[in-house]
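MODEL INPUT / OUTPUT PAIR
PAIR INDEX: 1
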Amino acid sequence: MLDIDCKLVTELLTRFIKNEVQKTGMNKVVLGLSGGIDSALVAFLCKEALGADNVCGVRMPYKSSSAESLSHAELVAQKSGIRFLTYDITAAADGFASQQLLLNTDCDKFLRVNSSEKIVGFKMGDTLNGHSLGNILARLRMNTLYHISALGGSMVVGTSNKTELLLGYGTLWGDLAYGINPVGDLYKYQVRQLSRYHGVPDEIILKKPSADLFPGQTDEGDLGYSYEELDYALYRLVDARENPKILAESGEIKPELIDFCLKRIIAMQFKRQMPHIALVSFRTINQSFNYPRDWAM
């Protein structure tokens, strides 16, 4: 039930990319090349929509990034024919971690600091774990992409798929920040299917998806379920709009998986929309004043 017509979807997505980019007066795009399947597919789609000369992929490694990710990103650029460049974010990230966080007032309750002594400050790096560092890296990468986009007058293109967006598996103002996203309505299964259609190399399609936050980290390990399980459950709950209780009673999907998906969809809604604005007038932005982006064009 998740199969798509790859030819038709390609036509829709390439038309979307071309229309959304060109209506802003731009004709070029820039995207992060992680070496993963999502960014690989977006690179191929952008190349088909705008031409290889108008697409730039950016590799943004950190010191712990795997050599495989870098080589796969370069392979995508070579196979698709797009331009690519590299910016190492290690110095920027380590600079952030090395600085002192000074407590000018009693801020313990905001920082969850467990200490019997009065703390006046500590190194920011001491507060980071694998995933919080990952958020820092994601925001540094998006900061890099937007700076490059401003230098050349190009649109930043996102690479998050529908599975990730529904579950909130992404960093706000990091990989979830972009001008347009051509694959945000494709489940991971469909990303793989369309990637095969476009000739994305098998070693990228078949490898375990990972944000490459630290050695051995995988998306499915973080989420606790395989993409195959998640895609099927999300499709039945979201696209097919099936009753969660009836679906659980049918035995087709584990009740705990249904519960996991529903809780994540609800809790992560804030990542899928612009921040709420307090309503005090008759025409409040994103509420009563809610036009599509091209309403005046």
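PAIR INDEX: 2
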Amino acid sequence: MTRIKICGITRVADGLAAAQAGAHAIGLVFVARSPRHVTPDQAHAIARALPPFVASVALFVNPTVAEVEAVLKSVRPDLLQFHGEEDPEFCRAFGVPYLKAFRVRPGVDLLQCAAAYGDARGWLLDAWSEAAHGGTGERFDWDLIPADLPRPVVLAGGLVPGNVADAVRRVRPWAVDVSSGVEVGKGIKDAAKVAAFIKEVENVDLQLSHIQLP
């Protein structure tokens, strides 16, 4: 089963729609310059409304210790996601499981980049952009992903209902992460697109399971 995270949730209704459609996690963005930014109070309301077994993930880009601690106190997320240039010591300092994001482009040695983050629960791979650390809607060349990454891969970057099945077939990630690809406007999710995205993942998982059966 490919896990699914719907990131950039800004409204309780969108978090509930994602959960009801079958998402395994929702992402809450704590980056002030992002159009999907939420305050700790907003995030608390969203996370509190989620049903059991749907995880909340708090996303940061080069935060201060105080910023992370404020979110931990208010929201109590299940997982942290560091999407900037945070060093391993910073990522592990909070005693909460974390994902480390890497932006992929030719010439970047992902194995070398990821080697220091061996205690991360997984590595999120996103498209490189000069404009932002994520949520750009751009995808990268999946052939740049090493086949021997020793941690679960969360695939992000330019995923939409129309290409996520191909992404799962080619990369076989542990999870897929979508934000702008299921929106009607920045920070506002389209429930129909979310449902279509999840259905595509479920369908390709079913096809792959049949292929693998003896």
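PAIR 2 NOTE: Residues 62 and 84 are 5 Å apart (CA to CA).
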